[in-house]
TrEMBL record:
Main location: membrane
Membrane topology type: Multi-pass membrane protein
Alphabetized Gene3D superfamilies for the sequence: CorA soluble domain-like, Magnesium transport protein CorA, transmembrane region
Keywords: Cell membrane, Membrane, Transmembrane, Transmembrane helix, Transport
Keyword Transmembrane attributed: yes
Name of the protein this chain belongs to: Magnesium and cobalt transport protein CorA
Superkingdom assignment: Bacteria
Organism in which the protein naturally occurs: Pelomonas margarita
Taxonomic lineage from the root: Bacteria, Pseudomonadati, Pseudomonadota, Betaproteobacteria, Burkholderiales
Pfam families, per the entry: CorA (PF01544)
Protein localization: Cell membrane
Length: 323
């Protein structure tokens, strides 16, 4: 579906051509460029754009199929970039994609499986014409910067959830299974974020310094800023990953400690009842030559002995912190 189609000349929008009229609009404005945004496009829309702008077939095939790893590829003077769009869903992070074709006189963004649009990026650029005067390369930077900026709140949410778990982890009566499940869910979200950030870090590194695509040469300092943001995100991801591993190990250790305490308590109570059972068994053997059986104080004495032995064992286990 076509979201926007606009031709910009000297930083100002001068036309809004249909997909079949893009090449004519560019001919009418020789110094301008066109910025087209599509969401979940049909094969027909991509085919028409491919014909109008002479897009590379392999890149068009990638944009048609989706399911691409973040990357940047060059086809002559056309650059193709793929990025992941992440948003919070019911089962963790939902993954969408945006594919961007950048040529000397056009930018085409193709969005798949995501509700996150880039109208805010376009509005900001249109309010500041001096930005759009820098051409299609700046639009690629603005889109990439917007994608990376949306990763930061997701990372903050993961960090906040980890801090909340750490604060309650040592509270008595904590459901350890629930904690492990939450840690595993956070680990999955972190892995999804890492799969988006790490390859994009390589992409940003290729767009500043060294051999840079022609459309990005004048904007290397902008892409270096995106690269810096991604480096900080990568560091946060690594730190959070280590925290999750440590928290999982601590939680499993606490489970082992709690199980050990339960075992000690059961063993202590078993020893107390075993002593009582042993004494009861001795006096319950019914031999004829047992003087205690005929003694008037035999029964109270037996009860007192059982209570005394049990009390002594309870006191001892209490001191050992088994009870």
């Amino acid at each position: 579906m076509l979201i926007n189609s606009a031709v910009y000349d000297d930083g100002r929008m001068v036309a809004e051509p249909a997909l079949d009229d893009v090449s004519e609009a560019l001919q009418a404005h020789e110094k301008g460029f066109v910025w087209i945004a599509l969401r979940d496009p049909t094969d027909d829309e991509l085919t028409r754009l491919q014909h109008e702008l002479d897009l590379p077939p392999l890149a068009v095939e990638d944009a048609r199929k989706g399911q691409q790893r973040p990357k940047v590829e060059e086809y002559g003077d056309i650059t193709f970039a793929a990025m992941h769009l992440l948003e919070t869903g019911l089962d963790g992070l939902a993954v969408g994609e945006v594919h961007v074709f950048v040529g000397p006189r056009f930018v085409v963004s193709v969005r798949h499986r995501s509700q996150q649009g880039f109208l805010g990026v376009r509005d900001r650029a249109e309010r500041e014409p001096e930005l759009l005067r820098q051409g299609p390369g700046f639009v690629l930077y603005a889109l990439m910067d917007a994608v990376v900026d949306r990763y930061i709140p997701l990372m903050d949410d993961i960090d906040g959830a980890l801090e909340a778990l750490e604060a309650t982890m040592f509270q008595p009566g904590q459901d350890r299974q629930a904690v492990v499940q939450q840690l595993f869910a956070l680990k999955q979200q972190l892995a999804t974020l890492r799969h988006a950030v790490t390859p994009l870090l390589e992409v940003a590194a290729r767009l500043h310094g060294g051999r840079v695509p022609v459309v990005c040469k004048a904007l290397q300092e902008y892409f270096r800023d995106v690269y810096d943001h991604l480096v900080r995100l990568q560091a946060s991801i690594d730190a959070a990953r280590e925290t999750i591993i440590a928290a999982t190990q601590v939680n499993l250790t606490l489970v082992s400690v709690e199980e050990s305490l339960v075992t000690k308590r059961l063993a202590a109570w078993a020893a107390i009842f075993a002593a009582s059972t042993a004494l009861a068994g001795i006096w319950g053997m019914n031999f004829d030559k047992m003087p205690e059986l005929k003694w008037v104080y035999g029964y109270p004495m037996a009860l007192a002995t059982i209570v005394l032995v049990s009390g002594a064992l309870y006191w001892r286990f209490k001191r050992l912190r088994w009870l």
